[in-house]
Amino acid sequence: MKPNQDKIIIKSGQKPMHLFDLWGVIINSMEAGLGVIEAIKPKIESDFYTMSIGREDMTLKDAEKYIAEVCGNYKKVLTGELTGEAKKQAIKRAHFYGTEPALDNFDNCFYQDALDSMRNILDNREQVAVYSNDIRPWVKREMPQDITERVTAFFEAGSNGKTSEDFKRIIGETQNRVVSHTADQLQELEAALQSGMIDGNHLIYIDRNGKLGEAEVKEAGIMRFATDIRTINYQELK
């Protein structure tokens, strides 16, 4: 038996709240990220041109190389090739030039199964909250308003990320009882489990890339696995 698998702290008399990770669960990170790359390319070029004025050691080829490096590393973040500190630095470098995708239509940035599941929860008079390391202004603007207007909270993770202590913090802040969390990163769900605030039967791993199998996820104590969030009956997680 995994630690905390059979424990869940319930505050009686409060509406059930379901936490959803943002990137990779609600938002298609690849679609949004490629839009960001298109947005920052001209900004990097302009910035490089400004820096090169009066300097013979900075050429067009240097600019092209720099753009390719910044955008290439950011794309490696999207594909999962970069992790840890290298991932943080690549994101920081790219986001210096902007974080909003250059898109006319943001529909493809949102996973339909996540939107449908969130609507179903809300229509059943239960609560939805979003939990993320990075909640950008365009997200609330472009997410369907019938969902955004009913989301109870958008929680931003602390400086150390989504740790077990951070789960305790955000669950302590809400006046509703958190009964589930859905994420596409096993490490995040393990942190939720280790917090002792949500048990493994109420943690949902959504497989967006086929990197982990159901057996491996369950071995970690995360007992619900899905490739489509709509297959999860959230109303039974109380």
Which strand-content bin applies to the residues? 5-15%
- The arrangement of helices and strands along the chain is EHHHHEHHEHEHEHE
Mean pLDDT: 89
Q: Which regions have little confidence, pLDDT < 50, spanning 5+ residues?
A: 1-13
Number of helices: 9
Provide a descriptive summary of the structure in words.
The protein is α/β, with parallel strands linked by helices and 238 residues long. The chain folds into two domains: 16-27 and 110-236, HAD superfamily/HAD-like (Rossmann fold), CATH 3.40.50.1000; 29-95, no CATH class. Helices cover 43% and strands 13% of the residues. It contains nine helices and six strands, in the order E-H-H-H-H-E-H-H-E-H-E-H-E-H-E. The chain has helices spanning 29-52, 60-79, 84-95, 112-123, 137-142, 145-148, 164-173, 186-194, 214-219, and strands at residues 16-21, 127-132, 153-156, 177-183, 203-206, 224-226. It has a six-stranded parallel beta sheet with strand order 3-2-1-4-5-6. Strand 5 (203-206), helix 9 and strand 6 form a beta-alpha-beta unit. The longest helix has 24 residues, at 29-52. The radius of gyration is 20 Å and the shape is elongated. The model is unreliable at 1-13 (pLDDT under 50).
